[in-house]
Amino acid sequence: MGNTLFDKLPDDGSRRSFMKQAGGIVGLAIAPPFIAQAERLTAFSKTVAGVSTMQLKVNGTVRTIQVEPRVTLLDALRENLHLTGTKKGCDHGQCGACTVHVNGRRIVSCLTLAVMNQGKEITTIEGLAKADQLHPLQEAFIKHDAFQCGYCTSGQIMSGVACVNEGHATTDNQAREWMSGNICRCGAYPNILAAVREVAGQSAKG
Ligand code: FES
Ligand code: FES
After folding, report:
1. Which end of the chain is more exposed for a tag (fewer CB within 10 A), N or C?
2. What lines the ligand 1 site, CB under 6 Å?
3. Which segments constitute the 2Fe-2S ferredoxin-type domain (predicted)?
4. Are strands 121-123 and 99-102 parallel, antiparallel or unpaired?
5. Model pLDDT for residues 4-52, shown as the tens digit of each residue
């Protein structure tokens, strides 16, 4: 302690004015994007602070929730809509456990706000099966024993479905590369790869 610029300032009020100036500089730096963000939020929600009403279309059904604009899509799905198939692993965009589809593209739901996903088609693992019929990749995960603890599984499956649809699972190495954002602590990778490649092969033939 005692070596920072802050510590060298005399304790006579100039510390306070220094902090005010620093705050002003930071404020200037973040103001334009924040304003732009606020304008986007008001398109659907009328407030950018406090609890507000939002509508999310999840698995084909429009659901209304009351959350603050800072709430992530992941937390809205799990805590407000009780769709707990989507898992929270790292909460920092690094493990893929929270992968869902938004407008058909895979995203990590911990890195996007619920408010930003209004008006979009959100699909979670709960929406993948059609009635009693599992998605082919869900079937393949069972067939290839592609899970152990199962914690990463929903994210792996959501990512795997998108990976196949993108055409990024045509070889083992390609599938490994494009699935590399999904971490499995149990190390079920060979089985996951086998499941993804099988469905990619079926798709290619079909
Ligand atoms: S919880 Fe979102 S990437 Fe890990
Ligand atoms: S099956 Fe346990 S983390 Fe992947």
Report:
1. N
2. 88-91, 93-98, 108, 110
3. 52-128
4. antiparallel
5. 434 444 444 444 443 444 444 333 344 444 445 554 554 555 556 789 9
Give the Å distance between the CA of 82 and the centre of ligand 1.
Answer: 17
The size of the chain, in residues, is: 206
Helix (H) or strand (E) holding 157, with range, is helix 153-166
10-16: long-range contacts, CB 8 A cutoff, minimum separation 24: none
How far apart CA 198 and CA 191 sit, in angstroms, is 11
Ligand 2 atom closest to 146 (CA): 1
**Distance from residue 181's CA to the centre of ligand 2 (Å):** 14
Enumerate residues lining ligand 2, CB below 6 A.
147-153, 184-186, 188
- 169, with CB counted inside 10 A (0-12, 13-18, 19+), is buried
